Amino acid sequence: MGSGIIEFKVRTSQREEFVDITPLVQQAVTQKGVDSGICHIFVPHTTCGITINENADPDVVTDLSETLDKLAPAEGGYRHKEGNAPAHVKASLVGSSESIFIEGGRLCLGTWQGIFLCEFDGPRQRKVWVKVIDD
Amino acid sequence: MGSGIIEFKVRTSQREEFVDITPLVQQAVTQKGVDSGICHIFVPHTTCGITINENADPDVVTDLSETLDKLAPAEGGYRHKEGNAPAHVKASLVGSSESIFIEGGRLCLGTWQGIFLCEFDGPRQRKVWVKVIDD
Amino acid sequence: MGSGIIEFKVRTSQREEFVDITPLVQQAVTQKGVDSGICHIFVPHTTCGITINENADPDVVTDLSETLDKLAPAEGGYRHKEGNAPAHVKASLVGSSESIFIEGGRLCLGTWQGIFLCEFDGPRQRKVWVKVIDD
Fold first, then answer.
1. Which chains touch A (3 or more CB pairs under 8 A)?
2. What ipTM goes with this model?
3. Is the dihedral of CA A119, A122, A123, A128 positive or negative?
4. Residues sharing a CB contact under 8 Å with residue B73, sequence separation 6 or more, in sequence order
5. Which of B4, B85, B95 has its CB closest to that of A36?
């Protein structure tokens, strides 16, 4: 990766798992020393994604995971034969990026918001890319 | 919020409601006086979201709302016990941000596109944050 | 469109079709001559969208298409009476934009990632807008 992108790695431990990466993203923002701007986050994978949701009660993302399972169940008669077709579908539904404002060097998030890496085909080591735009 | 972010508030009046916020976003862009750039929109909530869709026929977003209800019905055996689990799920599916180009001081949208705040757990007062990047 | 936005057109040939537009987006980035920055992509339509997913095995996006069909089937008792209500729903689920990092003048994508225009109401000619932010 070029000098402008910060990369960090996340090791997931289950087939499906939502990992709160807010502290890691904040660390990247702090490292860049940007006071006011936008933090763009991107995962270079096709069977995991990024979402923002409540990180106070872990049941919230479990509900999200279970609802996505109903839409794209493990056994669904898929064409893609690697056994991870539902993971690809879920990745497109949550999306592979997020953009969050920065003020005073801090990510601007709502009281209950956290940033989650959504693992849909783990366990694996995943990469997260962060780019900070100064304004 | 820092000086770079414009915040406006939206009062919703129903449990589930899609509010066309295009005029409010345009107003924020006009206030910034940026001719060419990008307008980033973010909602700091976990039970509402932002989407872009047709704003000519209100039935379009009603169909969206009803389809999301089938995927995440009110009674769905959720773990999160505050009664708004489906609202959290829907928020992640539509997402909490949008990015729209600006040219000539105007939001660049297609003929039929409008920007909607998607209320999934109203009625409430919601905050919308806008940041305009000049290029 | 203003001078800052590059527009290209995509002709789709089926009702529902996922077109890999990665080469066209890279061409727009190359045309701008930006070494390091962010490429924002936006479709000004309400019945098509943009997603990032695997472009090695075409079955992956077919699975995505078929899963979205289960959620928003052709015959679903919709209110919007133009026959394309499910296309509107699907457009909001995949979203109308993506943001991808640029380093060394190249789009930074994972090994398996491609950028897809998601046609949900074709065949039509679609517009794709690209804006490149230099950092």
1. B, C
2. 0.96
3. negative
4. B86
5. B4
The whole-angstrom separation of Cα C88 and Cα C80 is 10
Residues of A near C (CB-CB distance < 8 A)? 1-5, 40, 42-46, 71-72, 76, 78-82, 85-86, 88-89, 91-93, 95-97, 99, 127, 129, 131, 133-134
Specify the length of chain C in residues: 135
Q: What's the DSSP call for residue C2?
A: -
Half-sphere exposure of B107 (CA within 13 A, CB side): 28
Residues whose CB is less than 8 angstroms from the CB of residue C107 and which lie 6 or more positions away in sequence, other chains included: C22, C25, C26, C29, C39, C100, C101, C115
CATH topology of domain C5-134: Jelly Rolls (2.60.120)
Q: Phi and psi for B40 in degrees, rounded to 5?
A: -100, 135
Domains of chain B by residue range = 5-134
Distance CA C28, CA C72 (A): 33
- Dist. CA A126–CA B122, nearest whole Å: 36
- Residues 6 or more apart whose CB falls under 8 angstroms from that of A16 comprise A65, A69, A119, A120, A122
Cβ distance C108 to A42 less than 8 Å, yes or no, reads: yes
Task: State the Cα–Cα distance between residues A122 and C31, nearest whole angstrom.
Answer: 38
How far is CA A103 from each of CA A17, A130, B40, rounded to the nearest angstrom?
A: 30, 16, 14
Compute the 3-state secondary structure of chain C and give helix, strand, coil in percent, each to the nearest 5. 25, 35, 40
Sheet with strand C37-42: strands edge to edge = C6-11, C125-134, C37-42, C97-103, C106-107
8 Å CB contact between C101 and C108 = yes
pTM, 2 dp? 0.97
pLDDT tens sequence across A11-53: 999 999 999 999 999 999 999 999 999 999 999 999 999 999 9
Amino acid at B83: G
